[in-house]
Amino acid sequence: MSASPDAAVTLAESLTEEALLLRLRSTEHDFVERKPRGAKGDWLQTAVAFANSVPIGWPAVLFVGVDDNGNPQQGPEKLEDLAKSVSDVLEQCYPPIYRHVVPLHLDTTGACLAVVIPGSQSRPHFAGKSYVRLGPQNTPASDEQFQKLIAERSSVTYEIRKHIGEKVTLVVRDPREHVQTHRSVELIECNLHWVILKLAAPVIQVSYPTSRLELSWNPGVGLQVEVRL
After folding, report:
1. CA 97 to chain CA centroid, nearest Å
2. Which domains are assigned to the chain?
3. Nearest alpha carbon to residue 71 among 106, 117, 101, 95
4. What is the pLDDT of residue 2?
5. What is the pLDDT of residue 1?
């Protein structure tokens, strides 16, 4: 399952307090973790593991300020300080990890924080080691798992975006294998769905689906973008 960054934010922020309380009282699993107020290193590991392992856009929840059974350890008057601590700790993640922090008040038993972290489209994230989620455990990523995380980010879109504003060579092949080559084409924009380029002669903008692009690098020429129509 995947979602756009905006959709991930909407989904994370749409979880109601009732839904979060149900997760707090459930057993720990791939998408739920509980940590006491003093376990700052564990907060960081869990946030990175969730962002790296949960399906992109799907919300996982880190409960901070609770014991292993979900019992709150925090007084309501201390939640603001706890939220600042969580924010300071998660700022150590790179690239930055989106999180939505919700204070939970459990009647007379105390309070805690629910830190909602969607699976990230910007993975892999790092906080020292790279962590992944295996069942209810945070585990340092093996070489194979690390390479998989890198592969998820190493897309055509990601590579093209590094060259936006630069001049490239555009090669267009039609179904009959007729080839048109355009040099000094400026890369204007690229997202998951299309690329926009500006031709030099005539001066016009063209757009192609990213699914039809192939990239190559030629010494002395630079990046070549090939489109199969």
Report:
1. 7
2. 5-154 (3.30.950), 158-228 (2.30.30)
3. 106
4. 38
5. 36
